[in-house]
Amino acid sequence: MKTFSFTAILLTLLMASGCKTAAPSSAPAGGLTLQQVQNTGYDSEWPANRRARLRNGAYREPYTFGSNELVIWLSQKVAFGELNGDGAGDAAVVLIADPGGSGTFFNLAVVLNESGQPRHVASTPLGDRVKIESLAITDRKIIVGMLVRGPGDPKDNPTLRVSRVFTFHTGRLAEVTQ
Fold it and tell me: For the chain, percent helix, then strand, then coil, each to nearest 5?
């Protein structure tokens, strides 16, 4: 008997209905576009080859841990701006991985603009079953507004509002405040 996670079924229904997995965002002139970040490759611990090549914002592969399918998709939160000081418009995105168990894992990813082409260069985990409320790039910092589990919160209903701030330097993401 095949088992499917609720997240995988919801994503399938959204994609079949023509809904996009990421909301339109204002990319700077000459910078990366939403379509580019929806259709690029991301390093990830979950796929067998450690790389998820998104197509229209989603990636799927057969998976043996807990279900028949691994699903990775781009959240609706995408931010465009300057991250590495070269003047080309870069992007920060949130990738969500559903490996088929009870967890849904969120990662912040940096996508640099290299001569007009997107290249995923760094990621950091944001948590399991968190809720991303906002994502922005300001003054070369990435600001993530999110809900995490507070005292007494069930795993699937976080209520504690936090803001996490990251910088990108020498190929790495570093959290500067929480």
Answer: 10, 50, 40
